[in-house]
Model the fold of this input.
Amino acid sequence: MIEIKKLEKRYGDGNYALKGISATFSKRLTAVIGRNGAGKTTMMRILSTQLLQSSGVVTINGLDNIRDAKEIRKNIVSIPQEASPIGYLTPMEHLKMYLCARGMSLNDSTIEAGKALKALELWHARDTPTDMLSGGMKRKVFVAMALAANADTIFLDEPTTGLDPLSRIEVWSAIKMLRGNIILTTHYMEEATELADEVVMVDSGKVLATGTVSSLLSKFKGMARAETSNANAKATHTIGNTKIEYIKLKDTERYAKNGYIIKPITLDDLFVMRGVNIES
Amino acid sequence: MNLRFIGTFTWYYGIRSIKRGPSYIISSILYPLVFLFLITIFSAGRYIDYAVVGGFISIIAMNAIYSGSDMAFQRLQLKTQDLFVATGIGPADYMLAMGLSYLASSLPGLAVYAAIGLYLGIFGVASTLMFVVLLLAVLLGTMAISFTIFGFVKHVRNIWGIAGIVSILLTVLPPTFYPYNILPKALLYVFMISPITEVAMLSQGAFGLAPKAYYAIPVLVLEIIIYSAIGVKLMRWREK
Done:
């Protein structure tokens, strides 16, 4: 379990990336969702002992992230955002190198790396330099590292950013095979819907809401999203040229006749409802 | 120290890269070979021994400099450092693994120079043993300077430019390819900021190419200790 109390991060230029976040991550997979610049990566880097906070307390399974960093590192895996494998090394070499860094013997690392590569269907590419692999397979190499490490807590920072839809599905199924508690950041709401037991919404360095996907969407029960780009249309929410109304399901036909596009409610709508400036 | 990690990293990233990335190896050999050629031509063969000794030093120093620049690339572009920070290895493990990988990349170049040195008959047993120790010193000292400098680089595009500047300032300017005793004393002392200068002075003394300069030994040891401590401290392993 991870507990965060009043976590703040202020950079040298005086800007705050985190403004007193408090949260508890206790579910098997928690998705931290938010736009670019919301503070997700800063939070992940602090939790995974890569970055020091300016103030606040973080405990991971009862261990303090500053005082007990060495102990914490034995039981976590952190896959950074936009991490790339070293082009001319193979998936097998990456995994063995990583597992040896975690203190595993060379023999055990060969066995565990083999198991993980087979489980994630990368075995056939085990000796192929990673710069010859597709984007999805490259990401799966990192997920394989996490799988082989068998850690208690796994941090995945935007594991599918930049991947095509099929590759994303591939990586999702790989993530589902991971053991331990997983904290995953994403700005793809469907990713959170697909994978998460709990969602933490972050914006501008603050937690906006926490809950399961269904509990967060419960306020939209019996509703749909109506969108139009008609400049004269009246709407509660405007994002760029798009006007958005949240309407009751019984009204969808009427709105559709007036040129609105009707869409089902997703986690995106939580951000719209809360007035988060999605545009920037 | 996680010796298993250091060994695995060196094997995969250093030794195997010799086969997979030969262009880098060739470029690191070519650079001092060009100096060897020019010095031999201009001095009508008189300073060829300096060029051979300097070639050894510059190959190791250059690779140590590039290990620091590669570390910056891995930190900024590949995010490899972040990946390793959360594993329990320390900055010294990573520095050493990277340095040894690049030392492995130096091996073909060193073999070429060893062949030239043997052909010219400049190696004696005692002088060669001392030279090996001095080459290890240049590896440690230059790595420490390099990791310190590249710890401050924030943009990938600056890495290779800075590597070029540092490489010229540290390997060409000091008396690696010419006798240290022809330098004005004041300038020599300025160049002694870099451990490469002391190694060049001591190596030239060991091979009888210039007067022995024992006073360079404590300076070299002190610099390696100080630069290594600064390198580890400023490496930005766990960022603030």
